[in-house]
Amino acid sequence: GIQVEQSPPDLILQEGANSTLRCNFSDSVNNLQWFHQNPWGQLINLFYIPSGTKQNGRLSATTVATERYSLLYISSSQTTDSGVYFCAVEFPFGNEKLTFGTGTRLTIIP
Amino acid sequence: KAGVTQTPRYLIKTRGQQVTLSCSPISGHRSVSWYQQTPGQGLQFLFEYFSETQRNKGNFPGRFSGRQFSNSRSEMNVSTLELGDSALYLCASSPGGLPRTDTQYFGPGTRLTVL
Questions:
Q1: pLDDT per residue as tens digits for the range B105-115
Q2: A12: how many CB neighbours lie within 10 A of its CB?
Q3: What single string gives the DSSP state of each residue in chain B?
Q4: Residue range A62-91: average pLDDT?
Q5: How far apart are CA B86 and CA B12, in angstroms?
């Protein structure tokens, strides 16, 4: 079946460290997005990235569509980066809903 | 532009009651999608409305329904509430064209507790 898997499930880092979060998906996709969910539940858009590489400040993302994975890089982590990171994809067979991964819970320790 | 708004932000109901949640999309956006988030099941798609018509539907029972008005505002209704309906309900808006070429924007959510 359709699967979106994220790793690692949990990550604890010291402030200032770098991290790489991975998203694997089971089929070709029309759309891939990365979100950060803050402690209050708000999903904040990070990247719309069905293919290629994008950067926004300390964050960057790369999607290799042919190999069915995406990576989110966070450099020089800050405590405000803590939260859960989700990737979500749209598969191109008739139902353009977002299918979410199970998330990576990132905790940044001061 | 104002973001996606959802009301109410918090709600407490008892089993058997019904509830209506509201979502106002970003101005100019015509698509509204609803998602349920629970600790056990994660984020799951409920349904999507576009131009007042349900365009897509997830695998939820008929107790979950929705509608969209001519101004693109959307409501979802859950009837005969069960304890398992306790969740964070999120709505997302997008311009609406398919295939999507832009991100979906999420509201702050409504946290429903069923006692």
A1: 999 999 999 99
A2: 11
A3: ----EEE-SEEEE-TT--EEEEEEPPTT--EEEEEEEETTTEEEEEEEEETTEEEEE-S--TTEEEEE-TTS-EEEEE-S--GGG-EEEEEEEE---SS--S--EE---EEEEE-
A4: 95
A5: 9
- Tokens for B103, please give them: 């991100």
Angle, vertex CA A65, rays to CA A60 and CA A69, nearest 5: 65
Answer yes or no: is pLDDT of B88 > 60: yes
Residue in B43, B88, B99 closest to A100 by CB: B43
Burial string for B50-61 (b: 16+ CB within 10 Å, else e) reads: beeeebbebebe
Nearest CA in chain A to B39: A102
CA distance A109 to A50: 32
Q: What residues of B are in contact with residue A96 (Cβ under 8 Å)?
A: 48, 56, 98-100
Return the pLDDT at A90. Answer: 87
Task: Please write the tens of the pLDDT for every residue from B4-50.
Answer: 999 999 999 999 999 999 999 999 999 999 999 999 899 999 999 99
Query: In chain B, what residues touch A102 (CB-CB under 8 Å)?
Result: 42
Give yes or no for A35 touching B (CB within 8 A). yes
